[in-house]
Automatic annotation (TrEMBL):
Family: Belongs to the glycosyl hydrolase 32 family.
Keyword Cell inner membrane: no
Keywords carried by this UniProt record: Glycosidase, Hydrolase
Top-rank lineage group of the source organism: Bacteria
Lineage: Bacteria, Bacillati, Bacillota, Bacilli, Bacillales
Annotated protein name in UniProt: Glycoside hydrolase family 32 protein
């Protein structure tokens, strides 16, 4: 029998469950030195904790099915001032989640006086009964400093409803946000947070993030975000009517939500997402587990060349603590060729700075087989002004589709990107079956699952129709967090 956390396709520095299906991240909160990672586990909340966002301790299930139904997605907060009255004047954790029973979705709460180890469901649940809606789920709660009240965002079909509360038990409906962005499927798992603007001291905006369910138009589930203003009761988007702002250009980053209550002295907004897609959930060729989480990412807002505010994502700095001795290449000039590097590995990070001379395409090929036939391409086309991740030859791709048939897994993912500067900075994370690729300052990110053979560990650089110069290309093998 294969040792747990060393099975085929098992990531070595991403959070995955020992066994069973992990899906939406839930209840993400930092409290008394611990990051709590709750997650969907067949209508219950699984639970893991970490002190560094890298090494996780799996704990027993936190919230399980009861007479009001299954426990669907939601959030958690620290009730510092005991507004709920649950903690005898002290502080503690409060989870806010969707109860689901007989097709009916409603919002409920539970509280923990012992750092999330045990939970008591509120006797007055549900705190927001279903108001006659088919889709009414995934509450995200935060403390709104300016109004001195709790605010809640709930997904309702293709809209977000906002509520407010003085105590987490009694909720008042406030407003609806709808009618803009991608409307191709139901909105799910909202998140709401305030971010400072890079290079603009004292300026900030609010970001409303929503995931979008499986549909034919986007060929699977995806996610989008809105930038604007939130006064504790109403969100106003400042780019309403424009093209959707996509969160991730791969296919395997869903239901991302941010950690609540990260200390002010830390100052970061950190989130992660489920590394899968509702087109093929729990159909991966992995045993005994299905699904996992992305690496944690720090969020920022920055203006692009057109002056528009865009979300930028960067890996958390803590990941650098996993680095082993770097393998450095460069400068390397790739002349209309595929260049094999003397490196092989399954779990590593890479950094590169690239310029080019009339190249039609250039990039990096990871998880390459000895004959080069099996590989995943991370590339850029200056001609098309387009980034692309190509997993058509990445290995196993016969994943069943949730709705029947075979999923469209072996495909190319694309993102627009200007090459007018003639230079790009790339950073990537390869972890057996998970690839996360960050471009520039993280303005474009691709998250993708791949299932190559374990012996396919090669690494190549390529250029077509011209030359590309990698002024540096550094690979950091990353230590396993499970050994």
């Amino acid at each position: 029998m294969t040792e747990t956390y060393h099975e085929l396709y098992r990531p070595q520095y991403h959070l995955t469950p020992p066994e069973g299906p992990m899906s939406d991240p839930n209840g993400m909160v930092f409290y008394e030195g611990e990051y709590h990672q709750f997650y969907q586990f067949t209508g219950r909340w699984g639970h893991a904790v970490s002190r560094d966002l890298l090494h996780w301790e799996h704990l027993p299930l936190a919230l399980v099915t009861d007479e009001l139904g299954d426990i669907w997605s939601g959030s958690a907060v620290v009730d510092w001032n005991d507004s709920s009255g649950f903690f005898g004047g002290g502080s503690g954790l409060v989870a806010i989640f969707t109860h689901f029973k007989d097709g009916l979705q409603s919002q409920s709460i539970a509280y923990s006086p012992d750092k999330g180890r045990t939970w008591v469901k509120y006797s007055g649940n549900p705190v927001i009964p279903n108001p006659g809606l088919n889709d009414f789920r995934d509450p995200k709660v935060l403390w709104h400093e300016q109004t001195g009240r709790w605010a809640m965002a709930v997904s309702v079909d293709r809209a977000i409803h906002f509520y407010s509360s003085p105590n987490l038990r009694e909720w008042q409906f406030e407003s609806v946000f709808e009618g803009t962005g991608c409307q191709d499927a139901v909105w799910e798992c909202p998140d709401l947070f305030q971010l400072p603007l890079l290079g603009e001291p004292g300026q900030s905006r609010w970001v409303l993030h929503v995931s979008i369910g499986d549909n034919e138009v986007t060929d699977g589930s995806t996610a989008q975000y809105f930038v604007g203003h939130f006064d504790g009761r109403r969100f106003v988007c400042e780019h309403e009517g424009s093209a959707p702002r996509w969160t991730d250009y791969g296919q395997d980053f869903y239901a991302a939500v941010s950690y609540s209550d990260i200390p002010r002295e830390d100052g970061r907004t950190i989130w992660l997402g489920w590394t899968s897609n509702w087109q093929y959930p729990f159909h991966s060729p992995t045993e005994p587990w299905k699904g996992g989480m992305s690496i944690p990412r720090v969020l920022r807002l920055a203006r692009n060349g057109a002056g528009e505010l865009h979300l930028a994502q960067q890996p958390v700095q803590e990941l650098e603590n996993l680095r082993e001795e770097p393998v450095r290449f460069g400068p390397v000039e790739v002349k209309d060729e595929i260049l094999r590097l003397p490196f092989s590995g399954l779990s590593y990070e890479f950094e590169a700075e690239v310029s080019w001379d009339r190249a039609a395409e250039w990039g990096i090929r990871v998880r390459v087989s000895d004959d080069g036939e099996e590989h995943t391409v991370l590339g850029f086309s200056p001609e098309r002004e387009e980034l692309f991740l190509d997993r058509r030859k990445s290995g196993f791709s016969e994943l069943p589709k949730r709705t029947g048939g075979t999923a469209n897994f072996a495909k190319v993912f694309r993102a627009p990107r200007s090459g007018e500067d003639g230079r790009l900075f790339l950073r990537g994370f390869v972890d057996d079956s998970v690839i996360e690729w960050f471009v520039g300052d993280g303005e474009e990110v691709f998250t993708s699952l791949v299932y190559p053979r374990p012996e396919s560990g090669g690494l190549e650089l390529f250029a077509r129709g011209g030359n590309a110069t990698f002024s540096h290309f550094t690979v950091y093998p990353l230590k396993s967090v499970w050994t």
